[in-house]
Fold this sequence. Notes:
The chain has nine helices and ten strands.
Amino acid sequence: MNSKDLKTVLYDVVGHVATITLNRPKAMNSFNQAMLDDFALIWRAVKADDDVHVVVLRAAGERAFCTGMDVKEGIDREPNVWSRTDPGEYLSPKLNQVWKPLVCAVHGMAAGGAFYWLNEADIVICSDDATFFDPHVSYGLTAALEPIGLARRIPLGEALRIALLGLDERLSATRAMQIGLVSEVLPAAELWQRADEIAESIAAKPPTAIQGTVRAIWESLDSTRTQALRTGLAYTEIGNPIGKAEVDRSSVPRRRWTLR
């Protein structure tokens, strides 16, 4: 993939970390068909490039991470209602079978379709000015796809509250951390650097072990506990011999760790 072919995002790889920057700040980084097409290319490239171990997703501008679908431009829709697809089939890493960790760095507004990424991120951090909300019902639209994904990572009552209150309430960064939607809240000036630090720490570990871990945990969500545990053994038997061979014993930290 040639990053110059991308129309709505910036894509850069440094070391083993790929950084995607949503780059439609004048449109609040909302997604249009061009952005869907860009992400279809990106996820294929990330999946195929073994030099990429981790992905960071962030957004340009000061006001918004993403406010969902661009209501002015819209996206392409099949005339046959039964042939239509969910935008998540373009945007969501796990739906595209990408098992490389996704770190999301959220600032400003994260609304509606922004949850396509947040729901499938492995780590979400945000700035202290971040707010989260889903406006669908306020416009007479059923809130389904985004809160269904959200209900698998935060308490059900919180997902319902976000979905049902629409534009009347926004979730603060503090509350988002309390319910587990984000794991760190930082000043805006420190957000991107912190996302890079997290990504680089993960990227330094054996990639087979990391990707196997991501896949095992996410795919377990579709199983019962017993089924997930039995399948989990297979992931270890497949991945461990490869992962152990990738370990550079001399680089494994012994006493360096942080307390969160």
